[in-house]
Design brief:
Blueprint: E1 6-12, E2 15-23, E3 28-30, E4 33-34, H1 35-38, H2 43-55, E5 62-69, H3 73-91, H4 96-101
Length: 131
């Protein structure tokens, strides 16, 4: 007998997270590491990841497997949060109301602007010299 598995994809900046959830004891594995090891016991990242579970009263009800790549650690934690929210939505459509109210289903589309030629960064110009 196979257990049901739900998945969701989250993106933030350059990070992409694929989140798979199935009923279980509440352990979270990120890139084959424990979540505390991967995010270095940083409480703000760990709370951000667990926010969809808290909002839907599903804390410690699912085993979560995450594959995340690209971006930095902050973008990755936000991508995992969005992917988890989408997976919980696939699990039960009644979770939509609390997730939507918390803004967890909306993609933050801000990206870093590319560097332009003759500029030091995206917009910073070289110092002007009159003489």
């Amino acid at each position: 007998m196979t257990t049901l598995q739900y998945n969701g994809t989250g993106r933030r900046k350059r990070a992409i997270a694929r989140v798979f959830i199935k009923p279980g004891s509440g352990k979270i594995i990120v890139n084959n590491k424990d979540v505390n090891e991967y995010f270095c016991n940083n409480l703000s990242f760990l709370e951000a990841i667990k926010e969809p579970l808290v909002r839907t009263n599903n804390l410690n009800k699912f085993d979560i497997l995450v594959n995340v790549n690209g971006g930095g650690i902050k973008g990755q934690s936000d991508a995992v949060k969005m992917g988890l929210a989408r997976a919980l939505l696939m699990f039960n459509l009644s979770n939509r109301t609390p997730l939507k109210a918390a803004g967890l289903l909306t993609r933050d589309s801000r990206e870093v602007e590319r560097k332009h030629y003759y500029k030091r960064k995206a917009r910073k110009s070289p110092q002007y010299s009159k003489r």
